[in-house]
Each structure stands twice: as C-alpha cells, then as structure tokens.
Amino acid sequence: MSIWTLHSAAAGITAERDGYKERDRRMRQINKQSTLGFSQIEVAMSTLIVGLMVVTALNTAGAAMRSQVGNGDRGRGMVFGSALMAEILEQAFEDPNQTPVFGVESGEATSPVTRVNFDDVDDYHGWSSVPQDKAGNVSVSGTGLTTVVTVALADPNALGSATPPSPSSVVKKVNVTVQQGASVVCTLTAVVTK
C-alpha cells in the first residue's frame, strides 16, 4: 500500500468524521429549536390551566359567601316568622267581642300600623310589614325583611290545596311568609280549628 492510498483513506475517514460532526451539529440545532418551542407551549398551557383553577376557586368562594348570607337571612326569617305565627295562634278563632266577619272587624283599624287591636286569627289576613312586635315597635335586626300573612278558610280534607274544593267555616289555614326584597326567605303554615 502506498502512502498516497493511506493518505486518501485517512482523508476519507476525516471527511466522514466531519460529515458526522456536521449532522450532529444540525440535529442539536433542530433539537434546541424544538425544545424551545415546546417550552413556550408548556408555559402557555400551564398559564391557561392555572387561570382556570383561579377562576374556579373564586367562583367557589363566592358561592360559599352567598350561601352564608342566605343562611343568615333564612335564620332571621325563621325567628321573625315564628314569633308572628305564635302571636297569631294565641288569638281566638273568631272575634269574641263582635259579630265575626272574615278579616278586620270594625273598630280594629290598623292605623297607626300596629296589630294591637287584632283579637282573632283572620284579623291578620293581608298583614304586611317589616318585622315588629304587636305594639308596632320595629325590630332593628329585621332590617331588609318583610312579613306577609294570609289567612283563608280551608277544607279539612284538602289542607295541601291552594284553593280548597269546599272551604269549611271551622278550619283556617294561616301562612306567614318572610321575604328579603323579592325573594322568599321562609314560609310557615299552620292550621287553626274552631
């Protein structure tokens, strides 16, 4: 083998080695570019996921706060509604002093706005006011609430019916509804018999 052949063979190996180096350099460059691009996509997706988690957490916290406020209003409503219902149930079935008529009898005016002259259950029909005692003293802790009372003759065989098929003169259905603005906070129902 001649020196020329050895030199040619060495040059071929060197050229081949240089080709591998060039190919490796290009591959590293491609890998570096694709890795950078993938990192940007990962950052964008991570930001999106974290953003969605923050929105969900804030919605959950807001719902919990609204629930607490609603529970407080329901609790206050139950207190005032129960007190008014107890007052109504202490009254006579029908007026003990006059000829009974449904609703407020003559002389039982509600001006000023008090229930002091109410002496039977149906006198409360149509009553609507902020929470107050029978003498008309408004309760400060009832701010924002309204109590509404309906009294109706009822059929003892159809107490769940809104409009009884044959109302009786011996059964009255009393509903006390407590509202916060336009929304109903609680409703209490009682049946009074003669």
Q: What is the structure about, briefly put?
A:
The chain is of the alpha+beta class and 194 residues long. The chain has one helix and four strands.
Structure description:
The protein contains 1 helix and 4 strands, in the order αββββ. 15% of the residues are buried. The chain has one helix spanning 3-89, and strands at 128-129, 145-153, 171-180, 183-193. It has one domain (1-194). It is rod-shaped, with a radius of gyration of 41 Å. The chain has a 4-stranded antiparallel β-sheet. With 194 residues, the chain is an alpha+beta fold. The model has no long low-confidence stretch (mean pLDDT 78). A hairpin with a 2-residue loop joins strand 3 (171-180) and strand 4 (183-193).
Helix content: 40-55%
> How do the helices and strands follow one another from N- to C-terminus?
HEEEE
Poorly predicted ranges (pLDDT <50, ≥5 residues)? Answer: none
The main β sheet shows up as: 4 strands, antiparallel
Mean pLDDT comes to 78
Shape: rod-shaped
How would you describe this structure in keywords?
194 residues; alpha+beta; 4-stranded antiparallel β-sheet; 1 helix
Topology of helices and strands:
Blueprint: H1 3-89, E1 128-129, E2 145-153, E3 171-180, E4 183-193
